[in-house]
Every structure is written in structure tokens, then in C-alpha cells.
Design a protein that fits this description.
single chain, 302 residues, mainly alpha
Amino acid sequence: MWLVFTILTTLSWGVAEVFYKMGAERSTKYTHLRTGIFIGLAMGIHAVFILLTRNVGFHPINIIYYFPVFFLYMLSMILSCYGVRFIENTVSSVVEEFSTVITAGLCFFILGERVSGISAFAMALLTIGVVMLAMFETKNENERPKDLTKKMLIVGFIMALMYALLDGIGTFLDVFYLDMETTPLKYVTENTIEDVANTAYEFSFLITAIIFYIYLKIKKEKFTFKGEKIRITTGILETLGQAFYVYSFSGNDIIAVSIMSFMSVISVVLSRIFLKEKMTKKQYVAIVMALIGVIILGFVGE
């Protein structure tokens, strides 16, 4: 089942990236915090639902124990929301997916995890496809908006790179947190560890959303639900992906994070359709190459 959850995570977050871009208003100063609030609300609602419908044995102390992982994820997400205002979604998504390479590398060199030859070949295809896509995007000759300065573009790239680094390390730490032999979480069992970790994460994001809301109030920024369908949808998709994500590491960690890198391809394709971003023949080649890698990983799964 870990493969199914990995694919569902990839689809949810791949679509969510497009909505991140749609809600990233360059003229709105705190747009990244507004997005964070709706994500926190959606996750908080889901966490309460889990506690009311399932006996996961959640103890509030785990919010503190899981905080290092949550902080890396939350910070990377907020930086991404901030930076995507200045670069195309197709650029940010492929740069951010280097987080999977960072995680896979850490799993390989530190944990000593190994994969079969065919899986390694598939991951190579996937990695090359993502790298090619990034290279072709950075050479995009489309005219940029006049209000987009070179400094803004650099900031956007830096934010995407920071996301990749923080998210990659956070995912690697999750390998330890979701393993019964190494987890620092308390009062968990083999059957509840994923739910406890996810609930701790979601409650932490709810607390963060409340802090963001108070901050906006201090800054005298108006905040309403009216006209926020895009950010509400972003919160729902992000929460769905998170709900599936914690079950993705019950199989092969390296393959799981490699498949998740395909969310950048999903994001690129949807960006071309809904955000009207153009696609070159070279980019199609890169996407097909990455897709072949994902399909092989899906069939081999070892």
C-alpha cells in the first residue's frame, strides 16, 4: 500500500503547487502568510477529525517532540509561498523537487539503503528528466512582466533552493520519526505511529496559523474568507497530501521520495494548461523521460 499512498501524495501536492501559484499575488505583501493560515486551518480540522474517529492514542507531548520536523517543513513551505510570486511555477516546482535528491542521497549514504539495478536506472531517468526540465526553464525566452525585476527573480530562485534543502532534510528526519526503533515520539505503536506523527504536524500548523492570524491583525491587515477559494483549495490539497504522505515510508524510502519528485512534472503540465505557461519540445522530452522513470519504479517497487 505504500506505493498507492506515495502516488496519492504526489498527485495531491502536484495539483496544490498550481494553486499556490494562483494564490501568490505579487502585489500583496503577506500573501504567503494568508496561504499558511488556510493550510493550518485545513490541517487542524483534519487532525480533530482523526482524533474523533480513530483511536490513535495521541499525546500532546508529541507536538514538542515532532517540532524539529514540522519546523523544517513549515519554513520550507512558507519560503516557497513567498518566492513563487516572482518566478514561474514551472521553475519553482522543478527546483524544489531537488529536495527528493537530497533525501535519497541522505538515505543512501547515511542509512545505507540500497535499490536494485533497474530501480537505480529508473531513478537516474527521473533525476535527469527533472534536471533537464529545470535547465530548459531557466533558459525560457518568454518576456517577463515589466514589474518583475532581476532582484525579484533571484529572490524567487533562492527561496526555491531553500525549500529544496529544508524539505529534503525534513523528509530524511521523517525516516527516523516513522521508524519504531528510532522514533523519539512517545506512546506510539506500530499501528499508530504514522497517525500520531501526522496529527502532531497538523496541530503544529494550526498553532502556526493562529500566530500568523494574530500577526496580520497586529499589522492591521484585513483577513476574510470571502474571495479566498483558491487558498482554501490549496489548504485542502496540502492536507490531503500530508494525510497520505506519512504512510509512504512503510516501503522503500528512496523509491518513495523519487516518485514524489514527479509532482513537479504534474505541476508543470497543469501550469501550462491553467496558467497558460508555454511548453517547448525539449520540455516535453524531459517530462516523458521523468514519466518513464516513475512508471518503472511503480512496477518494480524495490
